[in-house]
Amino acid sequence: MIGNFIHAFAKSLWHFNRSITGDGVRDTLKELTNIIPDLRIHEVASGERVFDWTIPEEWRVREAYIITPSGKKICDFRENNLHLVGYSIPVDKRMDLSELNTFLYSLPDQPNAIPYITSYYKKRWGFCISQNERMQLEEGEYHVVIDSELFNGWLTYGELLIRGQSDKEVFISTYICHPSMANNELSGISVAAYLAKWLGERQNNKYTYRFVFIPETIGSITYLSKNIITLKSNVFAGFNISCVGDNRCYSYLPSRNGKTISDIISLHVLKHIDENFKRYTWADRGSDERQYCAPGIDLPIASIMRTKYGEYAEYHTSLDDLEHVVTPEGLAGGYNALMKAIEAIENFTYPKVNVFCEPQLGKRGLYPTLSTKSSGHEVKVMMDLLTWSDGTRSLIDIADLCGVPVWEIYPIVTNLAEHNLLTLLDSPIYIGIDGLINNPQYSSKTNNIDEFSDVYI
């Protein structure tokens, strides 16, 4: 099952100390090349301006821990990288428990969890600890060690371009800046990697696919600052992939526009996968869609998720793991939903019937000669498809009118097109006030009844 492969790959990425910069990001991208060998790795120097932001210093950690008065090592970064506040400055200091407590972070409401805390843009240090362990700390002198450094280095990201028949692009983004957490990090990376692998192995993709693996926020801003002209010219659909690994529910977050092809397809796919999916609004945004859909950028980026970030108890804690939260079944569900959405983009056309009245299907071998339990449904879907195929409605619109998932009618559309009963248009037709159809793909066939081919007879 695909979920097992994705889950195993996520496990291989678990231990890397990812942040918005650093070797953890580089190591993650290097592992990604085992799945998608053509991934290109880019680096942008600290201090470079990217729109209204500046690339921060690079962060590197060698070790971090606390020695208790009794000599026990706790909050060991090497045992769990969540123990260290992200971007902590170096420290080698002795202090009593009262002072130490001002640098400790825990969650009283989740006493077994280590919280995930960062301080990217203000220099500080700290440790994260479970509330249960914190309550057991003894009075006395503690030795705090953080062997880290901040220096002029690089912000690193990965990019993959899978060329299709068209230069029109589908943009797929996921973030690579969180340490050892499963749904809110590894699920997006791993599912995106296997979607890229699938698309790279497909023959004759209609569209070009652009994948980016970036640090959240600063990475998307950086990427946009360097590629905005190309993206605005070419991208007509896309997805931000986040939290696609649990098996609890499905979720949808719209683009800022809310009516893009990505939105239309996301809603259709999720409705037919799980009619109880959770539908959020733009007010609930929280990931890189904030940048991709920002005013003046306005890329058509929506999000298909399992349980949305911030909506599950384990979010941003050590409890967000690969055993209890992210599962092979959950990953397979996230992968399948996004795969169906991509297939729907590939098949996003405006069918136009090529005959007057209903065609005679029997003489073309399209009408079943044996009546079975399913044959009546198949014929009805085919006839409903034909009756709505006037060139003004997309295949998704027609599937909705037929009450079936769009993937159920792909083989029907292919069959009808092969028999010259349908023309598949890339854009809808418009009928002018003179009664003539305005669509260069179809106008020569339809504006003059004398020009109809033999298919009409």
So how many helices?
A: 13
Gyration radius from CA atoms, angstroms = 27 Å
- Profile the largest sheet: 8 strands, mixed
Helical coverage, percent range: 25-40%
The number of strands is: 20
- CATH topology name of the largest domain, in short, is Aminopeptidase
CATH architecture descriptor text of the largest domain: 3-Layer(aba) Sandwich
- Give the termini separation: 49 Å
Count of the separate structural domains:
3
Q: What is the spatial order of strands in the main beta sheet?
A: 1-10-12-11-13-16-14-15
InterPro entries: DUF2172, DUF4910, UCP015244, UCP01524_HTH, WH-like_DNA-bd_sf
Pfam families: DUF2172, DUF4910, HTH_47
Organism: Aeromonas allosaccharophila
Protein name: DUF4910 domain-containing protein
Please give the structural blueprint.
Elements: H1 2-13, H2 23-32, E1 40-45, E2 49-50, E3 53-54, E4 58-67, E5 73-74, E6 91-96, H3 97-101, E7 104-105, E8 127-128, H4 131-135, E9 141-151, E10 154-162, E11 169-175, H5 182-201, E12 208-214, H6 218-234, E13 235-241, E14 251-253, H7 261-273, E15 278-279, H8 289-292, E16 301-305, H9 328-346, E17 350-353, H10 375-388, H11 395-402, H12 406-418, E18 422-425, E19 430-431, E20 437-438, H13 443-446
Parallel strand pairs: 7-8, 11-12, 11-13, 13-16, 14-15
Antiparallel strand pairs: 1-10, 2-3, 4-5, 4-9, 6-9, 10-12, 14-16, 17-18, 19-20
